[in-house]
Amino acid sequence: MDENKNIVDDTLILKYLENKASVQETVLVEKWITLKSDNLTYFNETKQIWETAIIAKDFENINVDISWEEVKNKISPKESVKFREKIAVLWKVAAILLLLLAIAVPALWNDSKVIIAHDTTEFTLPDGTSVWLKKGSKLIYDNNFNDNNREIELIGEGFFNVKKNKNKPFIVALNNTKTTVLGTQFNLQSRHHGKVTSLVLVEGRVTFANKNNKLVVLPGESVIATDTGTMSKTKTKNENFDSWKTKKLIFNQTPLSKVITDLSSTYNLTIELENSKLKNCTLTTKFDQASVKEVLETLELLFKISVKRERDFVLLKGGNCLQ
Fold first, then answer.
1. Angle, alpha carbons 104-109-110 (nearest 5°)
2. Is residue 102 pLDDT above 80, yes or no?
3. Same domain, 82 and 129
4. Among 119, 155, 122, 121, which residue's Cα sits nearest to residue 137?
5. Which pTM was predicted?
6. Which domain holds residue 91?
7. Which tens digit of pLDDT belongs to each residue from 54-80?
8. Which segments constitute the FecR protein domain (predicted)?
C-alpha cells in the first residue's frame, strides 16, 4: 500500500466499505484517500475486489440443509422427497452458473485495455484522439475500440482532444454521466470520491447527460453533475481548470483558499492552511512551469508563512495578509 498503511489498513478500509466504521474511522479513511493519488487508486482497487467478493460470499453463505428445513415445514411429507431432489438439482445448476461466471468475467476483462497514469501523461488512442490523464487516473476501452464505436470509461480526470469523426461519436463515461462529442477539446473530472462530475468545454460542442438530464455545452461553458442526478451549467470562471496538465497558473485577486485548491490539484498535493484568517487574503500573480518548491517559496515570501511539508502533505502555518 504505502507508508500510511499502519494507520489505514485493509481491515479499516473494509469496515468503511461495509458501513461499520465509526465516525472517527470514517473521517480517517476519507482524509487518507485524499492525501495522495496512490491512496485513491488503492482504495478503488480494494473496493472493486470487495464488490466482486460479495457475489461469491452470498452464494457460499447459502446453507442447503437449513434452507431445506425451512421449505420442508411448508410442504407435505409425500412431496418432501421429490421436492428435495428438485432443489438439489437447482443448487447444482446454480453452482455451475457461478463457475461459468467466474471464468467469463476475467475473459471479458481481457477484452478491455486499461491505461493507468502513474504520472500526468499524454496518450494517443487508436482513433488518433489525444488524452492527457492526471496522475492516478485510468482509462478503459475495448480492444475493438474505433471498429464500430468510440466508447471509453474514465476514472479520475482527463483532458481530451478528440479526433473528429462524424460517423462515430466519441463517448466518455464517468461516474453516472456520459459525454458525447464528434471532435472537440474538453476537461472531464471526478471529484469528492465520485460524487461530483465536472466538465469544462474548450472548443467544439458536446452533449453531457445523466439518467435525469441532458445538456448541450458550448465553448466557455462548464457543467457540474452530482450523484443524486442534479446538473447545472455555468460560464467557465476558473482559468486554472487544466493547470494539472499545462502547469500554468493565473491568479487575479484570488482568495488564498481558492489558490490552495488550485495548487493542490495542479501538483497532486494536500495543502492545508492552519491560519483561517488568511483564507480571504488575495493573490495576483502567474506561474508558468514553476516547480512546487518555487510556488511554496513565493507564498512564504508574500504572506510571511512557514511551510511544513511531508511527502504529499503541506501545512501552511502562521502568516498575515499583504499590506
1. 95
2. no
3. no
4. 155
5. 0.61
6. 10-110
7. 554 454 454 545 544 554 455 455 554
8. 120-206
